[in-house]
Automatic annotation (TrEMBL):
<keyword id="KW-0489">Methyltransferase</keyword>
<dbReference type="Pfam" id="PF08421">
    <property type="entry name" value="Methyltransf_13"/>
</dbReference>
<dbReference type="Pfam" id="PF13489">
    <property type="entry name" value="Methyltransf_23"/>
</dbReference>
<keyword id="KW-0808">Transferase</keyword>
<dbReference type="GO" id="GO:0032259">
    <property type="term" value="P:methylation"/>
</dbReference>
<dbReference type="GO" id="GO:0008168">
    <property type="term" value="F:methyltransferase activity"/>
</dbReference>
<feature type="domain" description="Methyltransferase putative zinc binding">
    <location>
        <begin position="7"/>
        <end position="66"/>
    </location>
</feature>
<dbReference type="InterPro" id="IPR013630">
    <property type="entry name" value="Methyltransf_Zn-bd_dom_put"/>
</dbReference>
<dbReference type="Pfam" id="PF08484">
    <property type="entry name" value="Methyltransf_14"/>
</dbReference>
<protein>
    <submittedName>
        <fullName>Class I SAM-dependent methyltransferase</fullName>
    </submittedName>
</protein>
<dbReference type="InterPro" id="IPR013691">
    <property type="entry name" value="MeTrfase_14"/>
</dbReference>
<feature type="domain" description="C-methyltransferase">
    <location>
        <begin position="246"/>
        <end position="403"/>
    </location>
</feature>
<dbReference type="InterPro" id="IPR029063">
    <property type="entry name" value="SAM-dependent_MTases_sf"/>
</dbReference>
<dbReference type="InterPro" id="IPR038576">
    <property type="entry name" value="Methyltransf_Zn-bd_dom_put_sf"/>
</dbReference>
Length: 408
């Protein structure tokens, strides 16, 4: 591929290595009869030849994605509720121990993390531009502004509330192409010893598992320790800790401090060395990943067609944003998958983005088990397998496509 763009971190040259084609907004579920005005963009991903950051070549305007009716509610998963309660406690006991500490979260969503901080009586503020999910957080007593975090809004908080000890963000920083503005905002808002902690899907896991569905409009960057370190240094920060997390198919929690204020942990050096040894950023590795993605698509489409032609009933489980990439790249519509079941009321009785598979409430699955269920929400597999044991007992089979296509 010869396509290129300008790096959003360092203004170097981003060279494309994977083209996932024309794609809809991953979190826009049209109603039946309202599919005409659907927005599409081109989903192409590349790596910066200068700073190594992996990123999309085309940016979707943020107001199209993060809006009043943004349908992703973080608290829909019990595993994630537990994860964020633990995360909050961790921060409270490690970083928020001084007098009157203050924490700011980017993308607090329905308050899944900050509700624990609030219960501990700690001063906090969530930034959440999607007003529907923000309302849920506010109803829990969490303090929220319905704004995008960026340089100007961060400075306004600094003026109003004083310096922050922690800026925290989960599954949000990688959604933000305007990194310079965010990191200048973090610089303005954090106290001298403050930290910026964020966790996002890890490029190393994505390449290892061929989990190309982690690539969609909202996931503008696919971070690694190598690229985050370089990014931090451009803005006066230093990568001082990394921790691999099992959630959402494999993430890394990065901690940035002001340059020279903390000694980087051993884990930082180890992850950087592993990325170097594995050749994670080598063009050959990324080209190999792209080839593996095409294989998964071919295998998955062949299997679904074979099952359809054999008269089997196939449905999907979890109308995830990730599955928009899979469905649209592979051309999976209602001819191959009868419906997708999902627990989110805001997605139910609508159609999946782009390929228009009907979304049904979760109980529909148990009411009449299909023969096969395509596991779109594979990152929640532990939670789903635990509650859907009856499906396999009744003879049903799961179709998985991460790390490769298999029936289990
Ligand atoms: N932190 C939650 C979690 O991990 O489940 C929510 C993640 S959700 C995928 C991303 C959230 O980031 C959305 O609720 C979106 O509205 C919000 N968001 C997007 N851009 C933002 C920005 N510049 N500042 C703050 N929040 C932002
Ligand atoms: P996520 O992978 O972005 O967290 O999205 C998960 C989607 O799957 C979300 O729409 C909620 C749905 N879901 C279910 O339908 N059942 C479940 O048990 C879980 C955990 C999620
Ligand atoms: Zn760059």
């Amino acid at each position: 591929m010869t396509e290129s763009s300008v790096c959003r971190v360092c203004e170097g040259t981003v060279r494309a290595f994977l083209d996932l084609g024309r794609q809809p907004l991953s979190d826009a579920f049209p109603r039946e009869g309202e599919t005409d005005g659907e927005f599409f963009y081109r989903l192409v991903v590349g790596a910066c030849a200068d700073c190594s950051m992996v990123q999309l070549l085309e940016e979707v305007p943020r107001e199209r994605m993060f809006r009043e009716d943004y349908p992703y509610y973080s608290s829909g998963s019990s595993v994630m509720r537990e994860h964020f309660a633990e995360t909050a406690k961790d921060l409270v006991y490690t970083e928020l121990t001084g007098g009157d500490p203050f924490i700011v979260e980017l993308g607090c969503n329905d308050g899944i993390m900050l509700e624990t901080v609030r219960a501990a009586g700690i001063r906090h503020l969530g930034f959440e531009p999607s007003s529907g999910v923000a309302r849920v957080a506010r109803d829990k007593g969490v303090r929220v502004v319905t704004e995008f975090f960026e340089e100007s809004t961060a400075k306004a908080v600094r003026a109003e509330d004083g310096p922050a000890d922690v800026i925290y963000s989960a599954n949000t920083f990688c959604h933000i192409p305007y990194v310079a503005s965010v990191l200048r905002g973090a610089d303005a808002l954090l106290g001298p010893d403050g930290v910026f902690v964020f966790e996002d899907p890890y490029l190393g896991d994505i390449v290892e598992k061929t989990s190309f569905d982690q690539i969609y409009d909202e996931h503008f960057f696919l971070f690694s320790a190598t690229s985050v370190k370089a990014m931090a240094e451009r803005f006066g920060f230093e990568l001082v800790d990394v921790r691999r997390l099992p959630v959402h198919g494999g993430e890394v929690r990065y901690t940035l401090a002001r340059a020279g204020r903390r000694v980087p942990s051993r884990a930082v050096g180890e992850l950087l060395a592993a990325e170097r040894d594995d050749g994670l950023h080598e063009p050959a590795t990324l080209a190999g990943f792209a080839a593996a993605v095409a294989r998964v698509r071919d295998d998955l489409v062949a299997l679904l067609r074979e099952l359809r032609d054999g008269g089997h009933r196939v449905v999907a489980y979890g109308a995830t944003a990730k599955s928009a990439t899979v469905a649209n790249y592979c051309g999976i519509g209602p001819d191959l998958v009868a419906y997708v079941c999902d627990t989110t009321p805001a997605k139910q009785h609508r159609l999946t983005p782009g390929t228009h598979i009907p979304v049904r409430p979760a109980h529909v699955f148990q009411d009449a088990y299909p023969d096969y269920a395509l596991l779109f929400a594979w990152n929640h597999s532990q939670e789903i397998m635990a509650k859907e044991q009856g499906f396999r007992e009744a003879g049903g089979r799961w179709i998985q496509y991460v790390p490769d296509v298999r029936v289990v």
